[in-house]
Structures are given as C-alpha cells and as structure tokens.
Design goal:
Number of helices: 13
Keywords: DNA-binding, Transcription, Transcription regulation
CATH topology of the largest domain: Rossmann fold
Number of domains: 3
Pfam families: LacI, Peripla_BP_4
Protein name: LacI family transcriptional regulator
Strand content: 15-25%
Number of strands: 12
GO molecular function: DNA-binding transcription factor activity; transcription cis-regulatory region binding
Shape: elongated
InterPro entries: HTH_LacI, Lambda_DNA-bd_dom_sf, Peripla_BP_I, SBP_2_dom
Distance between the termini: 26 Å
CATH superfamily of the largest domain: Response regulator
C-alpha cells in the first residue's frame, strides 16, 4: 500500500521542525527562503497532498457541485457516468464536497433547458454538464462563464466558453478509428453506411465530429472504390419504420459492406441484420450496453469502441474538485483512451 506523506516526513526530509512545515503549508508566520525551498522540494518529492488545506477551504460549510446529466433510467448508457459521479463524490466527501444531480431526458431539449435553468437559480461552486444539445447549451455556458462559475464538460466538447476541463474521447479521432476498422475488415471496395441514430443530429456536435472523422479517413485513404452513404435514422425507436428505411438503404446499395453507428445504438442495426440474414455485413459502433455486448458475442457486431463513460463522470467531478478545492492546475482537455473491444477481449472490460 502506498504510504501517505505526513508533516513529520516532510520535516525530516527538509531538516526543519514540524512547526516550520506547518507554517509553510498554511502560509502563516515567518520562514526563511532557504527553509521554504527545502520544504516545498520535500513536499514535491514525497507527493504530499495538502489535506489540511483542503479542509480549511471548506471549513465554512458544504462545497456543493451540480451535475447536469441525462436520466439513466431512460438510456442504459448514462448509468456508467452516473456511477462515476457517485464514486468521485464518495471519495471527495471528506472535504465537504456534495454533488447534486439534475437529470434530464436525453431526447427532450425542453427537459434539458428546464433543469439547466433550475440549477442556474441556485448557488453552486461549480458545475459538471454533458452538453449534448449544442445550441441550448451555449446560452447556459455563456451565463455561467459571465457569472464566474467554473464548469467541466464531459461526453461532448464545446470549447466556445472555455470550460475548466473537457473529459471524454476525441470524437473526430474515434471516427477515423472506425473507418480504419471497417476498411481493414473489407476484402474488396464497396459501400459503407454512416448511420446516425439520433433525433437531432446537427445539434449533437460529438456525433457530427465522429462522422467527419470517418468520412475523412476514406477521403484520405489511398484505396479507391469505397463509397460512403450518410443515413439519418431518427425513427430508430420505431422498429417497423426503422426497418423499412434500412430495407431501402440495403436495396439501393448492392455493394454494401457494412455500417458505422456513431452512438451506443449499434443494437438497432444489429437486430435488423440478424432478422434479415445480413450478419455477414460489418458493424462497428460504440459502448458496452447489454444488447451491444450480446450482439458482439454472437458475431453480429464486429467492434465496439469503448468511450469509458464511467471515467467521464468520475474525472469530470475529480478534476473540478482539484481545480476548486485543491487549487491545482488541471489540463483543459482530458482525453480518455480509444479502446477497441472485440468478442475476444470483452471479458477484460465488463
């Protein structure tokens, strides 16, 4: 187990008294520059975390943060960031940190606006938000920025109003990766369909960036003969209507080689492929949802790109606390790894 550095350890390393170390940590009393330099160097070498300083910052009461995230009861994907937020809150509770969750329906813009307005009328030290509605998010990000309220973003990066940190994947790079996966798995040129299964794609910048990365991969590829067809399937939750649209796409593209689904709904396309004997077509998508995992194990889904949603929620809170409570400098972007999950390595991710 890693040993936690104590004031006594710092004092011994710097060859000063514990009282002198205490004065440097709390910036009180007189300490010679020479002793101060030795103490700061010892703190750095021992990786000392100033717990007492953090407690002092919150001694006046609770340190409340708001988390504006989609309701996980409506979409399994959001269960993971929800757990990540809870995990970070539990670890930071000793410093007086409390996280209040404001949940909205991910397919309802008005729900997002209502919850964002509600939290804006309260007094929070910081805000964590998944800004999945681009246009509607801008107004609130501008408001919080003008009011000097620090905020972190996760899932979707909107740099317009300079969040403290964005936590998530590089959406454009993940689109490039998806293109490479489908390309490598295709023995001969043909057509790939970029399937956007969302109600309002153009208002979801992370989906647009994934699509652009995918398109650019084939645009820059030296291989000839590949065609990319873009399909907005905003009726994905109506099986009859959705399958009718997919029937038409398959009929019109006789050289179809596979699908790229830009979000967690690969199971919608996978179910269609199974029902129509089209399992030989490649399918690449995102996220370890129960239905996606089942289709991955059956060989219907070829690859899932894991977006580490638990880590997005966890680091979204932790880095906000680092900035606000510990006064640490944090990177403006924390990209999480692009993990490619297959049937063969799935067991290491669940």
């Amino acid at each position: 187990m890693k040993k936690i550095a104590r004031i006594k350890d710092i004092a011994e390393r710097a060859n000063v008294s514990a009282g002198t170390v205490d004065r440097v940590i709390h910036n009180r009393g007189r300490v010679s520059e020479n002793a101060k330099k030795r103490i700061l160097k010892a703190m750095e070498e021992l990786k000392y975390e100033p717990n007492m300083m953090a407690r002092a910052l919150v001694s006046s009461g609770e340190f409340r943060i708001a988390a504006l995230i989609p309701d996980p009861t409506h979409d399994e994907y959001w269960e993971a960031p929800f757990r990540g937020v809870d995990e970070a809150e539990a670890q930071m509770r000793q410093y007086g940190v409390i996280v209040d969750k404001f949940l909205f329906e991910q397919n309802d813009v008005e729900s997002f606006k209502h919850e964002a307005q509600r939290l804006s009328e309260m007094s929070y030290k910081g805000i964590l938000v998944a800004p999945i509605f681009y246009r509607e998010s801008l107004a609130f990000l501008s408001k919080w920025s003008q009011e000097g309220i620090p905020f972190n973003l996760f899932n979707t990066h909107i740099p317009d109003y300079e969040p403290v940190t964005y936590v998530g994947q590089d959406s454009y790079q993940s689109g490039l990766l998806a293109g490479k996966l489908l390309h490598y798995g295709s023995k001969e040129p043909g057509t790939f369909i970029v399937a956007q299964l969302d109600k309002e794609v153009l208002n979801s910048t992370h989906l647009v960036k994934k699509e652009q990365g995918f398109m650019d991969y084939f645009e820059e590829s030296k291989e000839n003969g590949f065609k990319i067809v873009r399909a907005e399937i905003n009726n994905w939750d109506d099986e009859r209507s959705c399958h009718k649209q997919l029937d038409e796409l398959v009929r019109r593209n006789s050289d179809l080689r596979g699908f790229f689904v830009t979000n967690s709904r690969s199971f919608v396309i996978g179910d269609y492929l199974k029902k129509n004997g089209l399992e030989y077509l490649q399918l690449v998508g995102y996220d370890l949802l129960t239905k996606n995992i089942g289709l991955l194990n059956e060989g219907v889904v070829d690859f899932l790109i894991n977006q580490n949603p638990r880590g997005q929620g966890y680091w979204g809170v932790r880095l906000l606390v680092d900035h606000l409570v510990f006064r640490k400098e944090v990177d403006q972007i924390k990209y999480l790894p692009l993990d490619v999950v297959t049937k063969e390595n799935l067991q290491y991710y669940i």
